[in-house]
């Protein structure tokens, strides 16, 4: 049953037998990319909704959460095919950011983020390909975890770019985020990156610079200086050229993967998208096999460079987003420049398949944002443990 479409695509209850009580008492919004048997999947686009049958199977990640006792409230809206970080949808509107009503909600997991931020649900399930958990978590003052690539199954759901797609979730508190992690990441409980000690950890601080603008600002450093659970061992200056190269590498690989994944549907259906998303999809068609192979080689080099960041380091502290959410009336030119800064920050975790945990600990012009803990692959639970010691 369709309801207020700026937040939810569908709302209702699901009758799935519980096998544990780990999440009993917690409510759940599911991004409208995950299939649920008997419920349409719209992927934020009416043409997708109209051209796909109602699913007969439920995404395994959703099923695990429901069997653990989470109470389904509804399927939350997403940017079209999850191919945006703004949270605007030309078909269903822009949900209101409850923490800063004059600013963007952030996408593409916008509906899940807003439902958590305004108290409608406890858990907002989403995906993160190029930042779609980290960005709305930052803009709405939430904790948000982008998981290691491949650690959670992505079956029975709409992909964006499978080579980067990950599952993630947002919550208002760390305890809830940890409970979900313990349900979805049981194989990491005794992994090599599991920390049980509360001893201070070795951290590096990422100092990204873009066009002579340092994205690690005084407000970040002030917060870091107030912490006692860190042993800072080094700083990692990242040049503007490196950020732009990483962003462009990610953009090419994501775009090529997106077009190859959905090419048949694009050509057959000729779906209608928002102008900015359509422009990106049109560009995806122009990416050649040679472009893809060159970007793949560059990705391997970037991965090697990122691995060096973690030498003698448990995790890296870094800005999640350049600032609080952009204003709703920001100009196209301003947004284009901001997107370049934003993608430079989100690309490293995507290119290296790493987990990243957003901490909502900062404010800018009375609007929330924060910083992140970036960890080695499969250190997802360790990052949560580290955050709880802060």
UniProtKB/TrEMBL annotation:
The UniProt entry, under InterPro entries, shows: Amidase_dom (IPR023631), AS_sf (IPR036928)
**Which Gene3D superfamilies does the entry mention?**
Amidase signature (AS) domain (3.90.1300.10)
What sort of enzyme, by top EC class, is this?
hydrolase
Q: Does the keyword Oxidoreductase apply?
A: no
Q: What residues does the Amidase domain cover? A: 17-185, 269-383
Q: Does the keyword Transferase apply?
A: no
Q: From the UniProt record, which GO molecular function terms apply?
A: amidase activity
What's the EC number here?
3.5.1.4
Q: Which Pfam families match?
A: Amidase
Alphabetical UniProt keywords: Hydrolase
Q: Which PANTHER family match?
A: AMIDASE 1
Q: What is this protein identified as?
A: Amidase
Can you name the source organism? Paraglaciecola algarum
